[in-house]
Amino acid sequence: MLSIIDRIERYIIYVLVFMLLISVLLGTIELGRAILAGIIAAPLFLVKTHTLFESFALFLVIVIGLELLKSIKSYLVHGSINPAFVIEVAIIALGNKLITLDLKSSPPEFLLGMASILLGLSITYFILKKAN
Asked: What would the pLDDT profile of 43-52 be if each residue is shown by its tens digit?
């Protein structure tokens, strides 16, 4: 019975890897399209700030996808996920949020909460790296 569950789990992971690869590939194509469209539409090949922020956000989402892919590959090879990979993905996702955040409309409590989460993730990452 456990071997059946292990096989089904492995097939699900392969499907997830395939879907993640497609998502990262399509996201990369969309990022290239958005950058080219921003360059062509801008006067004298200058990109608007709004377009840059959207591009940075999409770029970081693609990096998150690649980190998730690395985690899943690690699971396939070693049978477990390295907690440091999960923390890396969380730090990148939080960084994405912070980079694209509108500071003028964000309440101070929200910013303090984000800073606390980032500090906690950073300490955890440091401890995990030192332990290895």
From this structure: 766 777 777 7
How far is the C-alpha of 84 from the C-alpha of 129, rounded, in Å?
A: 7
Q: How many helices (H) and strands (E) does the chain have?
A: 4, 0
The 10s digit of each residue's pLDDT in 9-45 is 889 989 999 999 999 999 999 999 988 887 787 676 6
Judging by beta carbons within 10 Å of its beta carbon (0-12, 13-18, 19+), is residue 107 exposed, middle or buried? exposed
Q: What's the DSSP call for residue 100?
A: T
Pairwise CA distance, residues 81 & 83, whole Å: 6
Give the Cα separation of 5 and 109 in Å (integer).
Answer: 45
- Write down the residue that tokens 């922020």 correspond to: 53
> Could you give the count of Cα atoms lying within 13 Å of 49 in the half-sphere of its Cβ?
3
Q: Tally Cβ neighbours within 10 Å of residue 75.
A: 18
**Domain interval for residue 29:** 2-131
Mean pLDDT of 102-130: 91
What is the total count of domains within the chain? 1
Instruction: Please report, rounded to a whole number, the percentage of residues in the chain having pLDDT higher than 90.
Output: 34
